[in-house]
Specification:
324 residues, alpha/beta, 8-stranded parallel beta sheet, 3-stranded mixed beta sheet, globular
Amino acid sequence: MKIISASRRTDIPALYTPWFMNRIRAGFCHWLNPFGGQVYRVSLRPEDCVAIVFWTRNARPLLPHLKELSERGYHFYFQYTINCYPREIDARSPSLEAALRTVRRLAELVGPECVLWRYDPVLISDLTPVSYHLTRFEQLSQALAGATRRCYVSFLDVYRKTERNLSGLAAYQLRRPYATEQRELLEAFVELAGVQGISIHLCCDEIPAGIKGGPVHRAHCVDPDLIRRLRPELDLPLQPGPTRPGCGCAHSVDIGSYDTCILGCLYCYATSSPKAALAHRRAHDPKDTMLWRPPRLQGVDLDAVARPAPDAVTRPAPAARGHS
């Protein structure tokens, strides 16, 4: 059995819902390992999926299909990004009003415990100083009260592949928050979110000691505890699957493709070239078994070259022998 990630690499609910639902109905998809080039066949049958983790800024296109997913026997939750940066940074994310309408409707459909708000990443610039985040976070936490129980926060990491995109913001002095700023922001977030019944979870960063106002939790975006609550009938030991140092996620199989998201977030590690992303989006075939095929795989029978995707479940170890 597998946990399906849909997807850290692109916004499947916003941009590729028709493809995703076609693959759900077919019961499988193919994905290409971006680091080795191996093609994998991923079963999407309900009996093979422990859970699906959706990552999105706009779940609206997927909302009409949630009933079908549930009736087919799938279990899922959403990592939902709402940070509403200025358009110079987030070019094509939904407006704040549209994002809030969608996330509230989503919470009505799946429950607030399955809507995990991402205020991610926190970056400092002339456009977004610390004071900006304090004001924006208070506004968002008030607006999201009752629609979520958790907020996932991370601080900007500049990846090599995003340096070119971020270079366009050089005039705005964009940077990662200093340690003192991180503490100030976390303490404010804990206080502001706590009033609304929302806990703070820090993703892939060390939690500073002695945070005032309440605990900051280590984030598990692919959360084994939440998944076990979704699937209480299963007694499954889930493998850890960290994606980078400090990551607390369980192992999942991501069915997305890099350089296919056209939402234009300049800090996104999954898009190295907006031009390439647009070209790949135009080449996308919602009837294909793979979200996007590189030229070398055009016309190839993917089942002939694919391997089965690895499970997310650890087989129980044999009982130890010897002294008790």
